[in-house]
Write a structure and sequence with these properties.
By secondary structure, this protein is of the alpha/beta class. The chain has a single domain, classed as HUPs (Rossmann fold), CATH 3.40.50.620. Helix content is 52%, strand content 15%. It is built from seven helices and six strands. Helix 1 crosses helix 6. It is globular. InterPro entries: Cell_Envelope_Assoc, DUF218. Keywords: Membrane, Transmembrane, Transmembrane helix.
Length: 201
């Protein structure tokens, strides 16, 4: 019994050390992949907005007026009819607009979209969200997008809300690492979890 317990203790330590080593290796690779993406695509190739209220779509529509060659992706924003109306009022062609409703939270904003960016050979995005939300979004983007060789230029929408707590940043950074390792985000444990809906135009 004693030797068996020793064996399992050694095995447990081995897996823990292996996991820590993997995470450290991963954290050293991500900055390299981001640097390569920045070199190969020094200018953003698409606009990516995290949903969270109509002010984000309105800001994005104005921002897009100054970047007429860039497509716009919005992850789980306002209803399609409202979004199309905002962009239409701003003179933005709806052919540039892609609305995606698969995400259920900030982590899945990125994990559901990263394959779309890769399929379109996107290596650099404008990342738009509210200023209070930006620190968490940047942490997640660095891990999720960076691990896939995509860099980003953050754009903050001014607001009067206080910044999110460090707890939310650490928690979602951990979930992002979980996604990199396992392909899962833990979103199914979110009480607000719902079946994905997808709309694009």
């Amino acid at each position: 019994m004693f030797y068996r317990n020793q064996f399992f203790n050694h095995l447990q330590r081995y897996w823990i050390l292996s996991f820590i080593g993997f995470i450290l290796a991963l954290m050293s690779v991500i900055p390299v992949r981001i640097a390569i993406a920045s070199h190969q695509a020094p200018q953003p190739q698409v606009i990516f907005t995290l949903g969270g209220g109509p002010e984000r779509e309105k800001f994005t529509a104005e921002f897009a007026q100054n970047h007429p060659n860039l497509d716009i992706w919005v992850s789980t924003g306002i209803l399609p009819a409202q979004a199309f109306a905002i962009f239409d009022d701003a003179g933005i062609s709806t052919h540039r607009l892609h609305l995606d409703y698969r995400a259920v939270d900030t982590v899945t904003n990125f994990t559901t979209m990263v394959q779309n960016f890769k399929q379109h050979h996107i290596q650099h995005i404008y990342l738009i969200t509210s200023d209070f939300h930006l620190p968490r979004a940047r942490a997640i983007a660095t891990l999720v997008l960076g691990s896939q060789g995509i860099t980003f230029t953050p754009i903050a929408i001014p607001s009067e809300q206080p910044q999110e707590s460090i707890f939310h940043i650490v928690r979602d950074s951990g979930r992002s690492l979980l996604w990199i390792v396992s392909g899962r985000t833990g979103a199914s444990f979110n009480p607000r979890f719902r079946h994905p809906m997808y709309a694009t135009r």
